[in-house]
């Protein structure tokens, strides 16, 4: 379902490779949602959230270092958006996951979808210009 496509490329190879990893996490999350054979998805959801938390911090740091190195004029805006995304991922209420696991997965997917199609497509592509 989630696939890194040509229109998401920034033209900066390491950023594009890191974005592919984020698309991969989104795809794993989508596949978990569609998996009707796993009744209790709690542990898998927690694992995916952990991967997302760790990888976004790594990726945003790398992206921000690059933007600094080229004196990117929209660096501050990017940093604010990165910090807000990390906060949303870190503010997960793990108690709520168990009440309706599929609904929680849908919420994660909505966040990822907005980020991948919005932020990457509209903001990160500008870094390569």
Automatic annotation (TrEMBL):
The keyword Cell membrane does not apply. It comes from the Bacteria. It holds the Pfam family Hemerythrin. InterPro entries: Hemerythrin, Hemerythrin-like, Hemerythrin-like_sf, Hemerythrin_metal-bd. The keyword Iron applies. Residues 10-126 form the Hemerythrin-like domain. Keywords: Iron, Metal-binding. CDD domains: Hemerythrin (cd12107). Belongs to the hemerythrin family. This is Bacteriohemerythrin.
């Amino acid at each position: 379902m989630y696939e890194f496509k040509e229109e998401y490329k920034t033209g900066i190879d390491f950023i594009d490779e890191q974005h592919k990893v984020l698309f991969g996490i989104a795809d794993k999350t989508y596949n978990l949602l569609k998996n009707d054979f796993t009744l209790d998805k709690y542990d898998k959801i927690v694992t995916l959230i952990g991967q997302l938390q760790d990888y976004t911090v790594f990726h945003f740091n790398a992206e921000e270092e690059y933007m600094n190195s080229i004196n990117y004029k929209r660096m501050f805006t990017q940093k604010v958006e990165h910090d807000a995304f990390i906060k949303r991922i870190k503010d997960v209420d793990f108690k709520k996951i168990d009440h309706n696991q599929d609904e929680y997965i849908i919420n994660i997917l909505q966040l990822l979808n907005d980020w991948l199609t919005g932020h990457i497509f509209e903001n990160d592509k500008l870094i390569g210009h």
